[in-house]
Design goal:
By secondary structure, the chain is of the alpha/beta class. Helices cover 52% and strands 10% of the residues. α4 crosses α9 and α5 runs parallel beside α9.
Length: 207
């Protein structure tokens, strides 16, 4: 039981454990999948979340190193702010809040995210809402001299969502992807919160 988790959350995890049963996830992968299921009550996420090799370990090291966390929208930022404050107090920025208007032909979130990438290229990027922002980020990654520590690709919906996740899957960057149309701000926040707990437990375990 983690000291960062409320007892009711631990009770919910026990219910999830019973329903999931045997699985092939590593302990760290399962911690992330379980929190995503908890945030949605949707067991499909046990089949939808994919991890690139070393993504979790690299993200844990980066969080401990206090890299910035860039979310696409304010809802994801709000969903992780409490856990960020309880753990490493990383700089936490919602891309959409960084700009007052969009560049021509772009969304405001896309404009803000690319501005953040220019300032903090090694940040952890958490996308739960804006596939256009994820597509724009992926287009920059092949030639970027400094790459993100992790990209969480979990936009939800019907337009450009599958395309953005496919682009991330091909990008040369550590990544956690929610396959298909599902995802959303609560799922993206849950994935990052799970990583924060894992990082905190690793740091505290080394003391």
């Amino acid at each position: 039981m983690s000291l960062l988790n409320h007892p009711i959350l631990e009770q919910s995890f026990a219910v999830i454990d019973a329903e999931v049963g045997e699985h092939n996830f590593s302990p760290a992968e399962y911690a992330i999948v379980r929190r995503a299921i908890h945030s949605t009550a949707d067991f499909d996420f046990a089949k939808l979340i994919r991890f690139s090799p070393g993504a979790i370990e690299g993200a844990i090291a980066s969080l401990i190193r206090n890299v910035p966390i860039i979310t696409d929208v304010g809802m994801v930022k709000q969903g992780v702010a409490t856990m960020v404050a309880k753990t490493f107090n990383n700089p936490l920025i919602a891309a959409v809040e960084q700009v007052s208007h969009a560049l021509p032909g772009k969304t405001r979130t896309e404009t803000g995210l690319m501005q953040c990438f220019g300032q903090f290229p090694d940040a952890i990027f958490v996308i739960g809402n804006a596939p256009t922002a994820l597509l724009a980020l992926c287009a920059e990654l092949p030639l970027a001299p400094v790459k993100p520590s992790l990209v969480i690709g979990a936009p939800v919906g019907f337009i450009s969502v599958l395309e953005s996740k496919a682009a991330l899957a091909q990008a040369p960057v550590p990544q956690i992807i929610v396959d298909g149309r599902k995802g959303g701000s609560p799922v993206a926040a849950a994935i990052l919160n799970a990583l924060l707990v894992l990082a905190w437990e690793e740091k505290e375990g080394k003391k």
